[in-house]
Design a protein that fits this description.
This protein has one domain. The chain is built from 3 helices and 4 strands, in the order E-E-H-H-H-E-E. It is extended, with a radius of gyration of 22 Å. A two-stranded antiparallel sheet has the order 1-2. It has a two-stranded antiparallel ribbon with strand order 3-4. By secondary structure, the protein is α+β, with helices and mostly antiparallel strands.
Length: 162
């Protein structure tokens, strides 16, 4: 969007994207391309089809792996949903800040949070079997040029604690 706040100010470029369209890695790359296009520079092709092909190739393999991992799993569902058509309608927002020392220990803050979540799930469900998932970057995929793609590359990870 091209916008001026007043007739005396220069034009501004405002870009608003949903997080599903671009990830944190791709955003600077995308903005570089926008700037280059604005300056009339030719843009390099950054095809995304290699990543899609990779995901399609590993889909069946991944599905078979997780079916085998989850065979016989008796994990409780948390939280329990009151009815099949229930749609949450949050009215309160809480913020919790936990002071941490990122240099303490051998585990990352991310892994510590996943462990804390697994412990909470086990306590609330009274089950030793806990399963949950996270979404992360797919930039580690063995795809040529994945680090230069201006599209999101996300990967889903399941965590099983039994």
């Amino acid at each position: 969007m091209n916008q001026r706040l007043s007739t005396t100010e220069p034009f501004r470029f405002i870009l608003v994207l949903h997080h599903a369209i671009s990830d944190g890695w791709a955003m600077p790359l995308l903005l570089e391309q926008v700037e280059a296009a604005y300056k009339g520079t030719s843009l390099l092709s950054r095809p995304f089809n290699g990543f899609i092909k990779y995901i399609l190739q590993i889909r069946n393999e991944d599905e078979a792996f997780w079916k085998m991992q989850f065979a016989g799993l008796n994990a409780a569902i948390f939280p329990v949903v009151p009815s099949p058509g229930y749609v949450p309608n949050p009215t309160i927002k809480k913020k919790c800040v936990i002071a941490t020392d990122p240099t303490a220990g051998v585990f990352t803050i991310s892994n510590k949070i996943k462990l804390a979540w697994a412990i909470l799930l086990a306590l609330y469900t009274e089950s030793p079997d806990v399963v949950f998932g996270t979404i992360s970057t797919g930039r580690g995929a063995p795809v040529l040029g994945v680090e230069e793609m201006t599209a999101p590359t996300t990967a889903q990870s399941q965590f099983v604690c039994a």
